[in-house]
Each structure stands twice: as C-alpha cells, then as structure tokens.
C-alpha cells in the first residue's frame, strides 16, 4: 500500500518573497580530501581560524550568559512587582477605613434598592407609570 505525497492546498500571499537557500561557501571550497597536500592545507586553515573561533565563541557565550542572567533578573523583578501588588491588595482588603466604606456602600445599595422597590410597588397599586 503506497501513499501519495501530501499536496498542500492554499495560495501564496501577494508580495511573498521566498527565502533563498544559501549554501555555505566552505562546502564548495573544501571538498573531500584527496591528497596529503590537501590535508595539510585544510589543517593550516583549521589551525589559523581555530583561535579566532575560540575567541568569538568565548565572547558570544559570555554575552549569552549575561542575557540569561538578565532574563532571570527580569523574572525576579516581575515576581517582586507582583508580590508588592498582592501586599497592597491584602493591606487594602483588610484596611478598616476601606472595610467601613465597603460596608456603607453595600448598606446604601440595599437601602436604595429597598426604597426603589417600595416606590414601584406603590406606583403599581396606584396604576402610575412613573419610572424611578
């Protein structure tokens, strides 16, 4: 049982420019070694550029390590900010002045709702179509 290759249906968006496939130059410059002379040339190039690679590698890894540290600090800063906000929330939530205002607000809401209902009940009895 053979399967047909999957065919993608869809369109290429207008203005889409496909990325070219870039082949590194060293693949063409350094084919398989055929002679001792080629090996010696390859080895000389390797030795010449290895020191540069080591230096660049050290610099890149040092920068990447700093980025990693900054990412950790960034996460720590966010955690501290969140912690501070939570502390403020807890403080406000238990603040007697706030609790008193919250209680008063709830009381007024219930009181006004009760009064409004009494007015509406009276208006129904009197057949008044007045909105409160």
TrEMBL record:
**GO CC annotation: what is one?**
apical plasma membrane
GO terms classed as biological process: bicellular tight junction assembly
Looking at the record, the residues that make up the OCEL domain are 24-127
Pfam families on file: Occludin_ELL (PF07303)
Would you identify the family this protein belongs to, as annotated? Answer: Belongs to the ELL/occludin family.
In terms of PANTHER family, this protein maps to: MARVEL DOMAIN-CONTAINING PROTEIN 2, OCCLUDIN AND RNA POLYMERASE II ELONGATION FACTOR ELL
**Protein name from the UniProt record:** OCEL domain-containing protein
Highest classification ranks of the organism: Eukaryota, Metazoa, Chordata, Craniata, Vertebrata
């Amino acid at each position: 049982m053979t399967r047909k290759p999957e065919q993608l249906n869809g369109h290429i968006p207008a203005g889409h420019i496909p990325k070219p496939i870039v082949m590194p130059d060293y693949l063409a410059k350094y084919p398989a070694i055929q002679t001792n002379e080629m090996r010696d040339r390859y080895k000389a190039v390797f030795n010449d550029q290895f020191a540069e690679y080591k230096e660049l590698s050290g610099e890149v890894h040092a920068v990447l390590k700093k980025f990693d540290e900054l990412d950790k600090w960034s996460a720590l800063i966010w955690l501290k900010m969140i912690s501070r906000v939570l502390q403020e929330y807890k403080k406000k939530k238990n603040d007697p002045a706030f609790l008193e205002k919250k209680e008063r607000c709830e009381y007024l809401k219930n009181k006004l709702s009760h009064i409004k209902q009494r007015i509406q009940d009276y208006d129904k009895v009197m057949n008044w179509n007045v909105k409160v």
